Amino acid sequence: MLTIVGIGPGKKEGMTLEAYQALEQSDCIVGYTVYVELVRELFPDKEYYTTPMTKEVERCQWAIAQARAGLNIAMVCSGDSGVYGMAGLICELAGDAMAKDMPELAILPGVTAACSGAAILGAPLTHDFAVISLSDRLTPWETIKRRLQAAVMGDFVICLYNPASKGRPDYLQKACDILLEAGMADDRVCGVARHIGREGQSREVMTLRQLHDFPADMFTTVYIGNSMTRRYGDRMVTPRGYQKDVKI
Predict the structure, then answer these.
(1) Does 181 fall in a domain?
(2) Residues 128 and 197 in one domain
(3) Residue 52 in contact with residue 82, Cβ under 8 Å?
(4) Is the pLDDT of residue 99 over 60?
(5) CA atoms of 153 and 72, how far apart (whole Å)
(6) Residue 155: enclosing H or E segment and its boundaries?
(7) What digits encode the pLDDT tens for the residues 60-86?
(8) Cβ distance 93 to 44 under 8 Å?
């Protein structure tokens, strides 16, 4: 049995009961080193297999092989297993040709950062939104640029994953420049959530102008409002439109 498990932010309280039970029942927990460390304290007696970033294919192949051998394997993914997670790669590796040789497969959802970070900030995703990763390790920057421009054209709330890293320190600034060039106002309401569901969790609401120079990192999730998004105190809210139909 191979189960791809979305663990949410990584704490027990942020997991679904189904996800926790899958880890509890597994023979071995597999994953990216950072994500495995989030659950190791909860399951100290489990066997573990980790690989660093860029070794995703090897990690998934190992998990498939162990499951074929009869072990109950849990592949952990931060947030949701299918949102920038390993569910897609596992399914790709399975393929039609390998289907008859594949172990039983289960994909368990988890709370992705877009949702958990939004809850910290208030309600920025109450209306249509687009989630875009600024990492160009697997997606060309020109493709990312077109997606940002399209999100502005569609007046979507935008949630940015992977806004900056040591190798990409200025990517959030570049993204903000693209949004401004596409016609977004520099006073657009924006927000950031950091270390979501973990020690050091924080939030901040600001304008797009201020976001441009915000020191983001890989533990930051960024929210850029649409034309209707408003700031209420230290909360960021995108109205759905209910109040326009309310008569007082």
Answers:
(1) yes
(2) yes
(3) no
(4) no
(5) 46
(6) none
(7) 999 999 999 999 999 999 999 999 999
(8) no
